[in-house]
Amino acid sequence: MAIPFKSIIGTLLYQLWIVTMGISLYLIYRALTQDYWLIPILLGFIGFQSKVQKSDMFVRFLKSLEIMKFFNKNTIQTLEKVRDKNVIFAFHPHGIYSYSTISNTHTTGTFFENMVLLGSNMALLFPIAGLFLKLYGIQGANPQNFKKLLTSGAQVGLLPGGFEEATITSPKENRIFIKQRKGFIYYAMKYGTIIYPVFVFGENTLFNTIDWFLPLRLWLNKFKLAGTVFWSRFLTIPEPNREIHTVCGRGIVLPQVEKPSREDVEKYHQIYIQAVKDLYDEYAPLYAKGIPLKIF
């Protein structure tokens, strides 16, 4: 099946974001090592960038490119009608750079439509690269913003596995990093928010990866440094002959507790992990046959 031309253009524009991320890293390196005059310029741009809001025009433009039609198939489904407000959508796996989750955001007629996607605060701070994310409506995954959104009753999307889940990505098996990620459970209980586990089947197959030096790369993640090593036949462009199936599971209703105890959080964290396992076991025979799920 031929890939629509506009989807190819959209995919190439996505690569522009990857390029600007590399340029940002290089400029920061130069500013900290020799070209100190760059420091006030970068700080000034970051300050300007922090004030930028979502652009509906930019979102409409990217939606018109139908980026996900770059792949053989892209489906979005829910197992039950989702609530209109006070919702957390927790996505797994992160993948290399959350290609499917980001590209499906704002998709009309799906649970993505009104969702506010949270992303790495570090990525949002990167000069130029962070600007694209801000214009697209991605907000910071910091506690202050998270609490503000939950208090307002928003539909919030997040990737609990973070950098670590990106680092452990493998096309051979689905891997999620969740055993020590409990903060979102605490806040969901505090604000009486329902959690929908979401599994993106096929996200792990978009690139080749290696498992070499995995402990070292996970250690780098502690300093908010990316530990991913990936490639495809087209360098940083994902493999087009893939299928992506995003499945939103059944909602997990948590009791509202003003100050959840450690035991409360642990109990519902285990319930959440089991819900992810159940969702995977139910749909893996359709979308990931023979591919195991490994939980870190």
**Range of helix content:** 40-55%
Strand order of the largest sheet: 1-10-7-2-5-3-4
Structural class: alpha/beta
Number of separate strands: 11
Radius of gyration: 19 Å
Report the mean per-residue pLDDT as an integer.
Answer: 94
* Distance between the ends: 37 Å
Order of helices and strands: HHHEEHEHHEHEHEHEEHEEHE
Number of domains: 1
InterPro entries: DAGAT
Main location: endoplasmic reticulum
Protein name: diacylglycerol O-acyltransferase
Family: Belongs to the diacylglycerol acyltransferase family.
Summarize the structure.
The chain is built from eleven helices and eleven strands.
Describe the structure.
This protein is α/β, with parallel strands linked by helices. The chain has one domain (5-295). It has helices at residues 5-33, 38-50, 56-64, 99-104, 121-125, 129-135, 143-151, 162-167, 183-190, 214-221, 262-287; strands at 73-78, 87-92, 116-119, 139-140, 155-158, 174-176, 194-201, 208-209, 230-231, 243-248, 293-295. A seven-stranded mixed sheet has the order 1-10-7-2-5-3-4. A two-stranded parallel ribbon has the order 6-11. The radius of gyration is 19 Å and the shape is globular. The relative contact order is 0.16. The model has no long low-confidence stretch (mean pLDDT 94). This is diacylglycerol O-acyltransferase. Pfam families: DAGAT. The chain crosses the membrane at residues 12-29, 115-138, 184-202. It comes from Paramecium octaurelia.
